Amino acid sequence: MVTVMKIIDLSHTIAKTTPVFPGSEKPHLTTVASYEKDGYRETLICIYSHVGTHIDPPAHVYETGLTLDLLPLTQFIGQAIVIDGSHLRPRESITMAEINRAGEEVEAADFLLFNTGWDKFWGSEEYFGDYPCIDDEVLEFILSKNYKGIGFDVMGIDPISDISLYRHKKLFRNKQIINIENLTNLDPVSYTHLRAH
Asked: What is the mean pLDDT of residues 61-67?
């Protein structure tokens, strides 16, 4: 018997036009060798570490926090569940109602991925608007469990206007966890188990 595994890419493509956090430079992709001139092709890539789909480690907001390379490989592997928040409107919060609606699988998961449907605005100014964010009760719930990571299809765990990074700081203050931002393609996998790696 042959087992078929469906693979769904949850990351945005990095290109010169990739949207970036306001104030950051866009990616620079420069051809430094070509087939015609050099017999091979090579590209110089210059990007900020928070361009496109990316992972925040505790060191993102704490000088003594662990960087990605210091986290064990097991931190990035496990079962994920997608929490559906696609019905939420701008400025509305992701609450425990969305968590509870996902059922018992929430307790068994290693990763909670939040699908707000906001990735449909990728590439437009609206993407930088008032996307839904988790409320404090959901953040406390996450902190009370042993999740390896959380992820969002929006620009960040904090509202784009929150320069204090309140949720980032609370998440990473006393916890070894990762935060994935700018996910995409969560619709096909909502309410299903994912193997994250």
From this structure: 96
